[in-house]
Each structure stands twice: as structure tokens, then as C-alpha cells.
Predict the structure.
Amino acid sequence: MSITTYSELQTAVANWLKRSDLTANIPDFIRLAEVRIKSLLDLKDLEVTADLTVTQNSDTVALPADFKSPVALWLDDINPREKLTQALPQTLPYTTTPCRPLYWAIDAGNVRFQAPALLTYPLKFRYLQAFELSNANPTNDLLANYPDAYLFGALYEAGDYTHDDQNTVKWDAKFRDAIARASNQETSNQKYTPMTTELGHMGRRRFNIYRGY
């Protein structure tokens, strides 16, 4: 069976355990597996980029449902895209005069800008996904790409809970193999990055036509 959601993961763990008396404990096994995964896997593997839009005269955009922490935000209406400056909510230089977004902050469940948007602007938002699976957050990239890490991690916790030493050793070996393959694959995905240079800009200040300086 496919394992792409929290519900499917719980079903798979139950099928592999072949024990109906542990059904109520399976969410705990999954949560404990997540704790181990966090300690062994580079959390950069859970960074994703989402397309957002701030509409004209609005100064906020709702955060993605799986948001955990921000990495960067860009305006995507020019090429190359323009990286915006992050601030704390209490230090955001706010004005009521509509203008092009320049500064932003995480404010409760929103991205908040320093002013209402002069126009409607497309955005690229890089962030770390919320890690914990739940009925409200039924999937993430790790589960989608490496379901075996979740499955064998949960089975290991189940074996530890039932004092099944033989299976615990087996599931732990499979879990660590899954984590190693996930880490190697993600490292490979990020390995080939083109080199760039801005030597032509050294010694002179870059002018931004939108800021006016």
C-alpha cells in the first residue's frame, strides 16, 4: 500500500505489527519516531518554497498551513527576484501609505509587510515545514519522499514498547538505513549549485529603482 498520509502510515504500522492490541499506541510510536528523525536528519531537508500573493491594498498574507519557521521571502515580479528584509513585528517600519513591499515580519499566522501593497505582487516564500504529523497536518515532504523512515522508526518504537528485542534490532537497522538514504539523497540534490560572482559590482553601490537609492 502507499504511505503518503498520517492515516495511511498508521494503517501500515498496524499491518506490519500484526497486533490489534497496539492500535491506540501507534500515534505515540509515530511521534517518538519523529523525535529520532529530528536528531538524525538535517532539518534543511524539510525546507520548501511556496508561491504566495499579496493583493493590492493588503498588508498581510496567510502563512502556509505546514509553516514552522521562515528562511527567506522574495518579490517575484522582476528577474532576478528581489529578496525582502525580515524584521521583528515590533520593529517593522509600518506606514499606511501603499507602496512596494520592502520589509516583512511573521505576525501570528501571517506574513505582515511594512505597508499596504501598492499593487498585487507574486512572492516566493522559503520556509521550514512543520514536522509533526497529525490529523490536521497529515503529510510532509519527508513522509512523501521517504515513508520507510517513518514506518521503520515507528516499528522500532513499538518493538521497544513490547520488549521485543529481536524485532527491535531489525527495525532499528532498517530505520537507520532509511535515514542514511534520505540524508544522502537530499545532500545529492543540493550538491550541484552553480557558482556566481558579482565582481562587476565591487567598489560601487547598487541602485534600486523601487527604493530610489
In short: The chain has two domains: 6-44+131-188, 47-129.
